[in-house]
Specification:
This protein is of the alpha+beta class. It has 3 domains: 29 residues, no CATH class; 42 residues, no CATH class; 76 residues, no CATH class. Helix content is 38%, strand content 12%.
């Protein structure tokens, strides 16, 4: 029986003096390729892409749905339904989630609305907040904003 050179655990299979975990961590080096997407020379992950590009292309929706579940306690279908279009202008290309009462721990569906990045920025600026709140009230959303914050 041998001992691993790195972690000193007893091992039966020896790969260059290391156990399987230490071999993968310290000794084995992946093949460098030019990534098909970003054109940088990095270690090959799969399908001709580097690790970052591979995850972006093939696992983005899965990661996004897991983050939405973690951050907002919403299922992905509800998130897509809420952020379908901006409730103020109807823009549907890039829509962000906004808490009406500005309490980020209140993730009820009544408190969440989809707003385009322009209106979302405006609602967080004091200069335009009253104007956007008035539009939200006209759109039949209950006014949950504190009067002293407006």
């Amino acid at each position: 029986m041998f001992k691993c050179f790195y972690c000193e655990r007893p091992i039966t299979k020896v790969k260059k003096g290391a156990c399987n975990n230490c071999y993968k961590k310290y000794i084995w080096k992946g093949k460098k390729i030019i990534c098909r997407r970003c054109r940088r020379e990095l270690y090959h992950h799969a399908k001709g892409y580097c690790g970052g590009c591979y995850n972006f292309l093939f696992h983005l929706e899965k990661n996004k749905s897991e983050n939405i579940k973690k951050w907002y306690n919403l299922d992905y279908e509800s998130y897509l339904k809420i952020t379908k279009e901006c409730i103020i202008c109807g823009f549907d290309k890039a829509v962000e989630l906004h808490h009406i009462d500005r309490n980020h721990s209140n993730n009820s569906k009544e408190n969440l609305v989809g707003i385009c990045p322009n209106h979302h920025k405006m609602i967080h600026m004091y200069k335009y907040r009253k104007q956007i709140c008035k539009i939200l009230e006209e759109k039949c959303y209950r006014n949950l904003f504190n009067k002293q914050n407006i």
